[in-house]
Structure formats: structure tokens, C-alpha cells
Design brief:
With 500 residues, the chain is α/β, with parallel strands linked by helices. The chain has 19 helices and 18 strands.
């Protein structure tokens, strides 16, 4: 029976708001690729993926007065659906993209009234009741989706009760039922992503990557989850606190396979916290070196510094690590305590210094304007950024705080009545609640207004790079040269190509 079941997984298109200052770097949808691979392994071969962005990266469709759709629009997505769709999964990782996902779901429901539609990803996990109320969904998968979707299909095909499936939210009359949390998956038990269902060549052709190396780059995961409890992050809602590594051997084997099948030149580790164990890291580097795999690898997501000492960083550079991103978030000890970021600034600076000395291109990312943060706290962040620039850190990003659904800070703002999920303006709030929408950023700080926060963002960003070029003037000549220009150089190259 399972072989006749038609399953379609849809990655909805990205959105760009007019006036965004930041470029949005896309990456291949690794989550849907894992999901499709597991479905096929479990006996469901009729799986299709529609990667709305990857199918047509150059398509920009005006949607609303200040919003563009990047990739396939609703009509084109419908045209790509097969005649028979039994189950349709919608992936939505970012809350600001949910507004268009609603339109996609509505159109699909209109043409496929009997299809079981389930949404998954960070946003449906954080706000399942809202998703079920705002779109004609049948269910939401909460957290990891591989086991959940297989259980849903088998249960429905056997006329079972969805209430017995952990990790879902679904409609029951006028009510929404949320079942118990599903146990985490051991990532070593999952098959490799089904990249054959994704238009990988489109990403290669257009040099699309969220890393510095954009030529034939693909994402990879070495772990799932994060063991920390930062209050501004939705990790605990999506993943809980269990942090699970894959074996170093399986990661190296996957890298070799990507090289052989796709001619990959670099891989991007998209883990939430890529490096938390020095022992794992050194074993991975040792196996990668023994494999004689001539590959570059990057850590574009923010990672921590505990495992990254001079020995670790030397091994990373020797085995092809090109760049990594640190996530100190703030230079204020008071703010770090407030956001429960268990971090030693001294250790972080020592790690960044060692990374620079090893030859790895490092970046640090910061957030300003947290609730309860003072102007003095924000100045401490600026001073910390300048100290890193003096050390030779080539890149830093700073963004205004935004309350991400699923985070403790978001829930606190809801409790205070500052965010109203029942308001008619809530969907508008989600749409503009994006890190790339910096020039229209809203301040959630009690004493700092919107305009003042935007000014601080521009000043902090400009001060870091002006000071960096002042003390390291030779970097100016590298901005447009190649990947060696760092993140700012990539920003200008993307801008030059007209993809801003």
C-alpha cells in the first residue's frame, strides 16, 4: 500500500521586504532532504520535493507594496504538483515567511481538498495553534519531523487515532489537540539527505551559499540540537536540550560522497552549535585528514569557543576549515547573565585570537537592544567589537534584538501583553519580525526607541569596519577580490551582481 501513496514536500519561497539592508543568503533545504530520505527508507518511494527558491533563484515577484517573493509563486507551485497528492508537507523555518506560506496552503487546499496537509519547522513548532487557525492545515509536526510524518501516514492509512502520535498538533472539531513531546532522534540512525530530489545544479549555477565559499558548496549536519538555554533562542522549543552528534566517520563519509556525486568543493556545517566537544572535533579532523579529502569547510552558523583552542583551530585549518562564526551576542556581562548566555569573554577572545593566527577567517555576531538592556550595556558591546577588530577579526555582524517565537523572551513579552497573538496585527508583526529588516526594526527595549536603535545599529556596524580598516588598511584592497574579502566583501559582490 505504501508504494502507491503520493507525498509532496514543499519549501515555501523566501520573502524580501523593500529597504532591507542585509542580503539574504539562501542554502539548500537540508531539512526536507532528510525528511524525504527517511520516507523512502521507510517504504514510501513516491516522494517529491518542491524547493520553491531553488527551482528559480532569479525569479522576484512583487507580492505586496513592499514585499517580493523570491522563487516560485503560488501559481507555479500548483503547476508543479502531481495530479494525485495524498500527503503534503509544508516547511516553514522562519516566522516572517509564514504570511506567504498561508497563501500557498490556501491555494493548495482549494485545488486538493482531500489532501492531508501538515506543516513543520521552527515556526509551526513554536506557534502550532496560530498556524492551525490561520491556514487550512490538518496538523503541525512539532520538532523533528522524520518519525512524526511516517507515524501520521501509517496511522491514517490504518484508520488509527492521531491522539496516540507524539509530537503533533491537530484540529479536533473547534479545538486544537497538542500531544506529548516526541523523544529526540539519534541522528546516526537517519539516512543521508535525498539531494537527488533538489535542483542542486541551480545553487551551483548561481553560486548560492550562506558561506564565504559559494562555488559548488553544500550544507551538512554533524549534530542536532543545542545543550544551552539562551533566552532569545527558540532551540529549547524546537529541539529540547538534548545535543546529539553524528559519528565523525559518518560525517567524513558523507563529505566524500558529496564530492564524488556533485563535485562539491566546500561544505557548510549548519548545526545550531557546531562545535561543543573538543574530543569529537579532533577525531573528525583526524579522520578527515586520513581520508585525503581535498575539501574546504565552513561554520557559518554561530558557535561557541569552549572547544576551540589553539590545538583545535590548528587541526581545523590544516584539514580545510576556511571560516567560522562565533556567537558572543553581547560585550556586556550584565546582558550575558540576563540572556543566560553562559560565556567567558576572556576565553572567547583567546579563541578568536587563535583562529586569526591559524589563518581561519573568523566572524563574530552580536545583538543589541535586548529588553532590560541599558545604553551602557550596548556601549560595552561596541567596545568589545572594537577590541576584536584590533585583534584582527575581519568580520562582525550586529542586529537589533527581535522576539523570536518559541524563545523565552518572546513568551515573556506575550505575558506582559506587549505581543498579542490574538490581535489582527499579529500576522503583520511576524512578517516584519526579521533580522534582515534592519532599517524598519522595532525596538523591544523599554527605554530605547525604534529610530535610536536603528542609529545604534548603523553606528556599531560602521565603527567596527572603519576601525578595522584603520588598523588593518590592507584589507580594503581585498573587498572585491575574492572570498578572501570576508563577509563584507561578499556583501558588496552580491550587491554588485544585483541580488540585493
Amino acid at each position: 500500500m505504501s508504494s502507491a501513496i503520493s507525498i509532496v514536500l514543499v519549501k515555501t519561497p523566501s520573502l524580501r521586504i523593500r529597504g532591507d539592508l542585509a542580503t539574504s543568503y539562501q542554502t539548500l533545504p537540508i531539512g526536507l532532504s532528510y525528511l524525504a530520505a527517511y520516507l523512502r527508507e521507510q517504504g514510501f518511494p513516491q516522494v517529491t520535493i518542491i524547493d520553491s527558491f531553488g527551482e528559480d533563484p532569479n525569479r522576484h515577484t512583487p507580492w505586496r507594496s513592499d514585499i517580493e517573493v523570491l522563487g516560485l509563486d503560488c501559481e507555479t507551485i500548483l503547476e508543479k504538483l502531481p495530479n494525485k497528492v495524498d500527503y503534503l508537507g509544508i516547511s516553514c523555518m522562519f516566522s516572517h515567511e509564514w504570511v506567504y506560506a498561508i497563501e500557498v496552503i490556501r491555494r493548495i487546499r482549494l485545488h486538493y481538498p482531500n489532501t492531508f496537509i501538515i506543516a513543520g519547522g521552527e515556526h509551526p513548532t513554536a506557534l502550532p495553534e496560530f498556524c492551525l487557525e490561520s491556514a487550512p492545515l490538518d496538523a503541525c509536526a512539532l520538532g523533528e519531523g522524520e518519525h512524526t510524518l511516517v507515524d501520521v501516514i501509517r496511522t491514517r492509512e490504518n484508520n488509527g487515532n492521531l491522539e496516540h502520535i507524539p509530537g503533533i498538533a491537530f484540529r479536533y472539531g473547534d479545538a486544537v489537540i497538542i500531544t506529548e513531546r516526541r523523544p529526540r532522534i539519534d541522528p546516526n540512525t537517519l539516512p543521508p539527505p535525498a539531494w537527488d530530489l533538489i535542483p542542486v545544479h541551480h545553487y551551483f549555477q548561481h553560486k548560492i551559499s550562506n558561506g564565504l565559499l559559494s562555488h559548488r558548496a553544500m550544507p551538512i549536519l554533524a549534530s542536532r540540537g543545542c545543550p544551552f538555554r539562551c533566552t532569545f533562542c527558540s532551540n529549547t522549543t524546537m529541539w529540547g536540550l538534548r545535543f546529539a552528534y553524528r559519528s565523525p566517520h559518518s560525517v567524513v563519509a558523507e563529505i566524500q560522497d558529496l564530492q564524488q556525486r556533485y563535485g562539491v568543493r566546500s561544505v557548510l556545517f549548519c548545526d545550531l552549535t557546531a562545535i561543543a566537544s573538543k574530543k569529537w572535533l579532533l577525531e573528525f579532523c583526524d579522520q578527515l585528514e586520513k581520508s585525503h579529502t581535498n575539501i574546504k569547510w565552513e561554520l557559518p552558523s554561530g558557535t561557541r569557543s569552549e572547544a576551540l583552542d589553539a590545538q583545535s583551530l590548528s587541526s581545523m585549518y590544516r584539514t580545510g576549515c576556511f571560516s567560522l562564526t562565533y556567537a558572543p551576542e553581547s560585550g556586556s556581562e550584565e546582558t550575558l547573565v540576563r540572556i543566560e548566555k553562559k560565556l567567558s569573554k576572556t576565553r572567547m577572545m583567546a579563541s578568536i585570537r587563535a583562529a586569526i593566527e591559524s589563518g581561519i577567517k573568523a566572524k563574530a555576531q552580536f545583538i543589541i537592544g535586548f529588553p532590560g538592556e541599558s545604553r551602557r550595556d550596548m556601549l560595552k558591546t561596541l567596545f568589545f567589537m572594537l577590541r576584536l577588530a584590533w585583534l584582527g577579526l575581519p568580520d562582525a555582524s550586529v542586529v537589533p534584538f527581535l522576539p523570536y517565537p518559541g524563545s523565552n523572551m518572546y513568551r515573556e513579552l506575550v505575558r506582559q501583553g506587549r505581543i498579542n497573538e490574538k490581535s489582527e496585527h499579529f500576522l503583520q508583526f511576524l512578517t516584519y519580525n526579521s533580522y534582515t529588516n534592519i532599517l524598519k526594526a522595532t525596538s523591544w527595549n523599554e527605554t530605547i526607541g525604534d529610530r535610536e536603535l536603528r542609529v545604534y545599529f548603523l553606528l556599531w556596524f560602521a565603527s567596527f569596519y572603519l576601525f578595522s580598516f584603520l588598523v588593518h588598511p590592507w584589507r580594503l584592497s581585498m573587498l572585491f577580490a575574492s572570498e578572501n574579502g570576508g563577509r563584507l566583501g561578499k556583501f558588496f559582490r552580491v550587491l554588485w551582481r544585483g541580488k540585493f
